[in-house]
Design brief:
It is a single chain. With 392 residues, this protein is of the alpha+beta class. It has 2 domains: 7-160 and 222-231, 4-Layer Sandwich (Phosphatase 2c, domain 1), CATH 3.60.40; 235-391, no CATH class. The chain contains 10 helices and 18 strands. It has helices spanning 49-69, 73-83, 162-165, 179-193, 199-212, 249-258, 268-278, 309-320, 330-339, 368-381; strands spanning 7-15, 25-32, 37-45, 95-103, 107-113, 119-122, 125-126, 132-135, 143-150, 156-160, 223-231, 235-240, 262-266, 283-285, 296-298, 304-306, 343-348, 386-391. The protein has a 6-stranded antiparallel β-sheet with strand order 2-3-4-5-9-8, with helices on one face. β17 (343-348), α10 and β18 (386-391) form a beta-alpha-beta unit. α6 packs across α7 (268-278), α8 crosses α9 (330-339) and α8 packs parallel to α10 (368-381). The radius of gyration is 24 Å and the shape is elongated. The relative contact order is 0.11.
Length: 392
């Protein structure tokens, strides 16, 4: 990432229509590091359930690839429409989509077809933007909107399917649904209350708010909310394991002390070494205690101090399956810090701790470096974080 580049945080949340086993919307991300680009696509398939999911997933996948190829998108849209399977009941193939193609410099293009209009949130208000509308010669009823813009630090783009804007449709409180105006006002209130709210939390809040407007909180349609947040990167350093050579303990401590961002220590021995080198007391803290994991500790100037291998293994599992997240759990606190950060640096000590070779420990516990490689890969591939791993 160049010095003046913005970090692009992307996250989305979905809820399937009540009574269906699968969501008929699809959200797909494509990161192209060599071009400093992130492409996000939200697609809403015709109807609901499996058929809608197939339509939406195919559309999102093709849209990502075509956007990345820089081909003429009118022609691409025709190819997509031709490729979609035809619904046996309605005799049409149809899926709406919104494509957001972002560069880390802030240069962005947005392509929309029949989806609710995106929201650009800048300095606490919605900014209207001019767009160019084009019709496909082959599919005259399908019109594409093209928007070009330059994003600024702290700008957000908010996308949602019509299941969000139509939440509560036909109810006494929302006879016409939540509507785009309701979504817009809610987003502005959320940003006003917390100007640094992450993409993840804002998308979650939009989805929860939409569901709360449905009678008995039962979604009448598939719901998807996505947020793309441009900001200066939030940095996190995670130190785990003692250095291979005791002579590097001082260097290890300086890495922690000099880092500009959030700081985490994973490992009792690691905390002891760093506390000694920095002349800081390490105190046991039972506020994050749980039956599964050892408790937290506290050290001045450090945001989180946890046990090592068990906590890291649990964090890896939670990153791979967010359904495992637990409140007031050291691993969940670690995961939350990682997901709220953009650039994450792991500094891994290479000295072997003989306790971790104990055959009585759970069989799925890996050695430290492999656990951190696993975490780093998940953060990069699934959450689009920028991750580095350094061994000492």
């Amino acid at each position: 990432m160049a010095a003046n580049d913005l970090f692009i945080e992307v996250d989305f949340q979905q809820n399937r229509k009540h009574g269906q086993n699968i969501c008929g919307d699809a959200f797909q991300l494509l990161k192209i590091p060599e071009q400093a680009r992130v492409i996000s696509v939200l697609s809403d398939g015709l109807g609901s359930g499996v058929k809608a999911n197939i339509l939406a997933s195919m559309t999102a996948s093709m849209a990502c690839r075509f956007a990345a190829s820089n081909m003429d998108f009118l022609h691409c849209a025709e190819i997509m429409m031709d490729a979609l399977p035809v619904c046996q009941v309605r005799k049409i193939s149809y899926a709406t989509f919104t494509i957001v193609d972002c560069h880390h410099s802030g240069r962005t293009r947005i392509i929309e077809m029949d989806s609710p209009g995106f929201l650009l949130v800048r300095r606490g208000r919605i900014v209207p933007l001019p767009s160019e509308e084009k019709a496909s010669p082959k599919w005259q009823d399908r019109r594409l909107r093209f928007t070009q813009l330059e994003m600024e630090p702290d700008d957000r783009i908010v996308l949602y399917s019509d299941g969000i804007s139509q939440a509560g449709l036909g109810s006494a409180d929302y006879p016409l649904g939540w509507r785009e105006e309701g979504c817009r006002d809610y987003v502005l209130d959320q940003v006003a209350d917390n100007p640094s709210v992450s993409a993840r939390h804002l998308a979650e809040n939009i989805l929860v708010a939409a569901l709360s407007r449905e009678p008995r909180r039962r979604a009448q349609d598939d719901m998807s909310a996505g947020v793309i947040y441009f900001r200066r990167p939030r940095r996190l350093i995670v130190l785990s394991g003692p250095p291979y050579s005791k002579g590097r303990d001082g260097e290890y401590a300086r890495m922690l002390e000099d880092f500009d961002g959030k700081k985490v220590i994973c490992g009792g021995t690691t905390a002891t070494i760093l506390g000694r080198e920095l002349a800081r007391e390490v105190v046991l803290d039972l506020r994050g205690s749980s039956l599964e994991l050892p408790p937290l500790s506290r050290m001045p100037g450090v945001d989180l101090v946890t046990e090592g291998i068990l906590t890291l293994t649990s964090a890896a599992q939670m990153l791979e399956d967010e359904a495992l997240l637990r409140d007031n759990n050291p691993a969940a606190m670690l995961v939350d810090l990682m997901l709220e950060s953009d650039v994450i640096e792991f500094v891994v000590g290479s000295r072997i701790n003989e306790a971790h070779q104990d055959p009585n420990l759970p069989i799925d516990i890996e050695i430290r470096r492999n656990i951190i490689k696993r975490i780093a890969k998940t953060l990069e591939d699934r959450y689009l974080k920028e991750v580095s791993v350094q061994y000492i």
